[in-house]
Amino acid sequence: MNLSGDAVAPLYRKHADGPGDLVVIHDDLDLPAGAVRLKRGGGTGGHNGLRSLKERLGTADFLRVRVGIGRPPAGVDPVDYVLAAPAPDLRGPFVDAVAAAGEAVADIARIGFDKAMTRWNAKAREMGKDRTTRPESPAGNILLAPGKTSGGSISRKEAGPQDDTEEV
Questions:
Q1: Residue 152's beta-bridge partner residues?
Q2: Distance CA 77, CA 95 (A)
Q3: What are the pLDDT digits (tens) for 109-165?
Q4: Left (φ > 0), alpha (ψ -120 to 50) or beta: where does 34 sit?
Q5: Does the domain formed by 4-114 have CATH 2.40.30.20?
Q6: For the chain, what are the domain ranges?
Q7: What is the pLDDT of residues 86-115, one digit of tens each?
Q8: How many Cβ atoms are within 10 Å of 36's Cβ, its own excluded?
Q9: Is the separation of the CB atoms in 56 and 152 below 8 Å?
Q10: Contact 14/62 with Cβ under 8 angstroms?
Q11: Average of per-residue pLDDT values in the chain
Q12: In whole angstroms, what is the distance from residue 48 CA to residue 80 CA?
């Protein structure tokens, strides 16, 4: 992981038109364990894998699916915490978060990054600690409701009962 830029850079240069074509899923100490959030670009936050990607790609503006691992307990070195298996009480949230991260990537492919980010991050704020469940609607005038096969429908009008059937 610490040298992930070495593996990603040649593929990026061959297949990507820009940083928006690269989605990186990574652990994040700044999110509670099991939380899933989407972000475009940003710093490395001391994450060696992200640092490697930034150095080898020449940019940190790639798309990110952040999977929270929480902060280490008092007295535990963050490096040791990141490399250790999750505590037994956190294993369930981690398994759920991995599945949710996969769903988030599917949403990115299906509805685009910005809409997926709105969907996942708005629902994460609503749900408090349980941030791994598939989002419903972020409120406001954009309806993002689960569809049968596409996983979502999008409307630029106020939501109405008929809008739950419109699929992308």
A1: none
A2: 23
A3: 999 999 999 999 887 776 664 444 444 433 333 333 333 333 443 333 333 344 343
A4: left
A5: no
A6: 4-114
A7: 889 889 988 999 999 999 999 999 999 999
A8: 28
A9: no
A10: no
A11: 79
A12: 14
